[in-house]
Amino acid sequence: MAQDSTRLSEYVSRRKFIAAASAAGVATVAGCSSGGDNGGDGGDEATTAGDTGNDQETTAGEQSNEMDTSVLTGDGSSTVFPITNTAASYWNSNPEAGDGDYWPTEWADEYGTDMRLADYFAEQYGYEPTGERSSPPFRVSIALSHSGTGIEGVMEGRVDIGDASASAAAELPDADKSTLDDFVNHVVGVDGQPIVVSREIADAGVESITIEELRQIYRQEITNWSEVGGPDREILALGRAEGSGTDTSFRANVFGDPEAPISPDQRFGQNQQLQQAINQADNAIAYIALAFVEPDGGTPPLDLVIDGTTYSYGDNLGAAEYPLSRDLHAYTWQNTSRKEAAFINFVLSDFGQEVFVQGNDYFALPDDRLETQREKVAASNYE
Amino acid sequence: MTQLLGRTRELPTRLRSLVARRAEATRQWAHDYRSRTADGAIAMHALVFGSVLASFLLFLAGSALTVFPVLVFLAAMGVGWYRHQAEAAKALTFLTTVATVGVLTLIVAFLLLESLPAVRAMGLDLFTAVRNPTMENPELGQGLWGRNGFWSLTPMMVGTAVTTVIATLIAAPVGIAGAVFVSEIAPRRVREVVKPGIELMAGIPSITYGFIGLTILNQYFYAEFRTPTIGTYFAAGLMIGIMALPTVVTVAEDALNAVPESIKSGALAMGSTPWQTTKSVTIPAGMSGVSAGVLLGVGRAMGETMAATVMLTHTKGFPSPVFDVFSNYGETLTTVIAFEGGNASGLQMSALFAGGVVLFGMVMVLSVGSQYVEWRMHQKLGGER
Predict the structure, then answer these.
(1) What angle separates helix B233-258 from helix B188-201, to the nearest 10 degrees?
(2) Taking burial as the number of CB atoms within 10 A of a residue's CB, which of A339, B64, B97, B356 is the most buried?
(3) Which chain A positions have a beta carbon within 8 Å of B315's beta carbon?
(4) Looking at residue B138, what DSSP letter applies?
(5) Distance of alpha carbon B279 from alpha carbon B291, whole angstroms
C-alpha cells in the first residue's frame, strides 16, 4: 500500500513537472530570456523547482512586492567556480539543522539556530523561511566558463554575480574608469598559485628557484634545467590559455603587468589538462591552481625564493606577502542587491569559508579582510 | 568594332524589353496564382508568410510578443494543412528552403560584420604581417597575436597550411590506393565488407580521434623522439590525415566506379590485362572524380577542430624553417577560435571572427572546386552510373 501511494505521488510530481517545464518553455520563447541552466541535476531537481516556483509566487504575493525571489545567477572563472557552485548547491538543498552532511549540529549550534541552512542566512535579509528541503527562499544557479565571460556577463546584466580569478581591471584593459567603478568587488577567497614541476625534476634535486629565474624561464631565456641546478634537460614551460584569469594574474604577479609578453612552450585550457601534461612530461614546469598540487604525486611544488625569502608549499605559501597569491572575486554590477548580498554573505560566513573555500583547498580570507568584506554586504545595509 | 558599338547602342532598348518581359511574366504568374488557388489557401499563404516575417522581426527586436505570431503561424499552418494540404505543403517546403538559405546568409553576414572592427584596425596586416611593427625589435613571427594591441592571423594561417599539407600527404596517396583496390582489384565479397567499414570510419566523432592522438600519438612522439613539446604539427597532421581518409576513399571509389563498364570492357577486349586497364583507362577516366575526393578531404582536414585543439600546443609563431613540423609552435585557425573564443573580448574577439572568415573562404573555394571537378566528370562521361 505504502508503495502504491509513493508511486502515485511520483506520478503526480512528474505531471506537475511536465506542466512546469512546458510553461517554462513557452516563457522562454516569449521572452527569449532563459535564466541559464540550473546546473542540470536532472528531473528531480527540476520537479522541485517547478513546485517551488508556485510556492514562492504565493509567498511573495502575500508578503511584499519588494522581495526579489527570482533565481540568482552567476557565471565565470573555473577557479572560483568550485567555491560559488558548492555554496549554491548547499543553498539550494536548504538542509535542516542537524543534517550531518550539509548543516551539522555543531555549526547550527555555533550560530545558535535550529533553522534550515538557506532559511537562516536569507532570513537575516528579510526573506521568509520556507521550512522545506530543496526549497530555499530563492534559488542560486552558477555556470562555468572563464573570468572574462563572467566579468562581461555581469556588466551586461546577463548574470547577477561574475566569478573572476583576476581583477576586473586586469580582465578589461580597455575599460575606462567609470566602467570599472561600477563593478563592486567581493573577495570570497584566496588562491596561492604554486609553481610545480614534473616528478623527475623534483627527484633530481631541484627544490627551489628564484622569481628572477622563473621570469627568465617564461621569457625563454633559460631553456635548460642545468642552469637552475637540475639535470641537463630542456625545460618545458607550460601555461594556461591567454586571457584566462590564471594566466592574467600570473603575468600581473610575476612580471608586474597583466599584458606582459610571456612565451611558454605550450598552453592548456584547463587546470586538469595542465596537471595531466605535467604528469606525462619529465621536464615540465608550470603555474597551477592550488587544488591541483600533489606533493607526493605527479605535480610536486617548488619553493619560490623572492628577495631572500623562501616560500614553500604548506608553510608560508599563500601568506599575504606571497606575490603569486591572488584574490578570488565574485563581482556584482552597480551596487549589490539584497539577494546578491544574502548569498555572498553566506559564502563569507565562517561556515562558508571553512566548507566552500577551505573545503576546495583554497585559503580562507584573513580575519581583518573578512571583516571588511562582510561589512559591504552586511544585513544592516538592507533594512 | 562597329558591331560592338552597335550592340552597346542597342543595350538600353534590350534592357527595357527584358524588364517589360519580366514584368509581363510576373503579372501572368500572379494572375495564374489567383485563378488557380482557392481563396482560403490564398488567405492561409498570406497569414503564414506574414506571421513568419513578423515573428522573425519581433525575435530580432527581442520582444516578448514573439509568441503571438508564432502561434498564428502554427494555427494557420494547422488549419491550412487540414483544408488545403497541397498549398500548405507548397508553403511549408518553400519556407524551409528560405530558412536554410536565410540561415546561411545570416551566418555569413554576421561573420563579416563581427570581423569588421579587426579589419578596420589592422588593415591588410591582419592577414599578411610577419613582424609586429609596434615592437622595438620585431622578430620574425614573434608577438603577432595581441602584443601591444596588434593582432595578425598569419601564424595561424601558416599552422593551418602546415597541418593541412601533412594531412593531405597522408590521406591522398593512401586514400587513392585504397579506392583503386576496393573498386578495381578486390573481389566482390571483400568490397561489400570493406566499403561500409570505411564509411563507418567517417562516423567516428572527431574528439575520439583527438583523444587517441592526445594520449597515444603525442605521448609516443614526446617519449620516443624527445619532441620539444607534447604535441606537434606532425602528430596533429597525422591524426587529421587519418580522419580525412574515409572522405577521400569514398568519393574516389565512387568516381572510379562511375567509369562506364563499356570503356573497361573495350580495353579488356583489346587484350590488355586488368591492371593495364586500371592503370591506363579507369584511373585517367576517373581522375577528375578522384581529385574531387582529395579536395573534399583537404577541406575536411582544414576545418578539423576538435582533434587539433586537444593535440596542439597553442603557442603562436612561425616554425623555422617553415617545414619544421616538430617545432614547439602549434596553432591553427580552427584551434585558436576553439581555444580562445571563450574568454576573448574586443579586438581579439573580432580577430577570431576574421579567422573564421578566412577559414570559411578557403573551405568554400575547396568545396566549390571539388563540385566543379565532379560536374566536369559527369559532362565528360555522360553522367552514367
Answers:
(1) 140
(2) A339
(3) 263-267
(4) P
(5) 16
